[in-house]
Write a structure and sequence with these properties.
Helix 5 links the parallel strand 15 and strand 16. The protein is globular. It contains six helices and 18 strands. The chain is of the alpha/beta class. The strands form three sheets. A seven-stranded mixed sheet has the order 8-5-4-3-2-1-18.
């Protein structure tokens, strides 16, 4: 059994939950109490208290990638929890931008913390947990940088999202994959890892449901429907885009909002 509590997401599942553009998930497995991402501020910690989650009891934390809306609350977590290691990509602290003007990366002052564990492509934490980057795997579907860039010297180049990690949880015979934003493409990720359950953002929020984005969403729904997997999406998928997909995927697709608890038996 897995218990997942959405400590932060763009929308509210209950009126007493705080919401902001960001993601933070608390996950209980048979062996671990995990924190996956920390939102963009300390609000995830306020929701944790409201949802009776003790962040001090977390034994492993994972940062999915180096954007502020997933790692802005890192300092808050490290103050509340003095022992848990934080696994993140070795590239997480590179200078990430939206366009060339807006910095969307992490606070570099934390980059040398001894509690951070840098990961390159893959690491097996134990028989329950694995982290993947997918960076060495071929992409059957194109990656859309969506205007996101990385600064290389004086230049800005389109993101390749090498700083993104995915968490695979082995829950008995079931494989549950947690993804922050699926920047490398939800279709590529599914093609690589074939989880039984996928939880995370699809990064479709910039696609116009009533315009050229409709074809992309329709194709995604058609391909995702070929898998026997169950999907719980959130955050950067976009609410309009979610409902468009939901109409085509039915009970295979669900939404996970701030303050919501999900139990996977």
């Amino acid at each position: 059994m897995l218990r997942i509590k959405a400590l932060m997401e763009n929308t509210q599942a209950r009126p007493d939950a705080l919401a902001e553009h960001g993601l933070s998930l608390y996950i209980e497995t048979e062996k671990h109490k995990l924190l996956f991402d920390m939102g963009q501020s300390e609000k995830f910690a306020q929701n944790a208290q409201m949802m009776s989650v003790s962040l001090n009891d977390v034994d492993i934390a994972v940062l999915s990638h180096g954007h502020y809306d997933h790692g802005g609350g890192l300092s808050c977590f490290m103050e509340l929890n003095r022992s848990a290691k934080v696994y993140l990509s070795r590239y997480a602290f590179e200078p990430h931008y939206s366009g060339t003007e807006r910095f969307i990366g992490l606070d570099p002052s934390f980059s040398d913390s001894p509690r951070l564990v840098p990961v390159t492509d893959h690491i097996q934490l134990d028989d329950e947990l694995e982290l993947f980057s997918g960076s060495q795997l071929p992409c059957a579907y194109p990656i859309d940088s969506a205007g996101l860039t990385i600064q290389c010297g004086p230049d800005f180049v389109p993101e390749d999202f090498r700083h993104e990690l995915y968490l695979m949880i082995h829950d008995g015979s079931r494989r549950v994959l947690i993804s922050g934003c699926s920047h490398k493409g939800i279709l590529n990720i599914m093609n690589w890892l074939h989880p039984d359950v996928l939880i995370g953002g699809f990064h479709f929020m910039k696609l116009n449901v009533n315009g050229v984005g409709r074809e992309t969403l329709s194709q995604a729904a058609e391909i995702l429907n070929t898998y026997s997997s169950e999907f719980y999406t959130c955050h950067c998928t976009g609410t309009e885009q979610y409902w468009y997909l939901k109409d085509r995927m039915g009970n295979k697709l669900h939404y996970l909002a701030s303050g919501q608890e999900l139990v996977l038996y």
